[in-house]
Amino acid sequence: MSTGAPRAAPPSRFPLRREQRDAASLVIEWGLVAFLPPAAVVPAPLSRSLLAALLVAVLPAALAAQRPLRATGVRGITFGMVIPGIPQPVARTDAIRSGQFDITGPNRSDVTITFTLPTMLTSPGGGTVPIVFGPASAGWSEAQAIGSQVAFDPSQPFTAALSNNGRGSVFLGATLQPAANTPAGDYTAPVTLTLAYTGA
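User: That's the sequence. What structure does it adopt?
Assistant: Structure tokens below.
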């Protein structure tokens, strides 16, 4: 093991946000940054993993002139320091580590939520870590409250109604399943959330 001083963490960075808009759609790319010290200065080969998010909102032309449908990535799923060989779950009810996406649109609109989920997280060095989403890993809250959710299966489309104020939040959890020989590194994967109006 190296006896040199540990490398300082890089300066904090804001999430990378790119937005593309036309009359009938909104696409927001929400990038998250993770940092892990070199394996030589940690007590065991650990890894920190985050999920980035790609949010896609689709509007029918008839609704394009109304209040726009917006999706904002509040945070990605954060697994923190993960020990190889030990599964690391994050519950959708975890106020710190769960993923959260806030949605706004026309009041009381019905919206269909569809996820495209990864099966692996990857590192720049080529390492992979399996990730599993269960049948109740996602939750919908019309009140945008993490303690008041309707659970749903993120692998299946889910229809929800926005609140009287045209708001709602989606929360997401998952379980990371690192193998015992998983190398240290930063592991990430994209999540795609697609929103589509299904009625007023």
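The mean pLDDT is 74.
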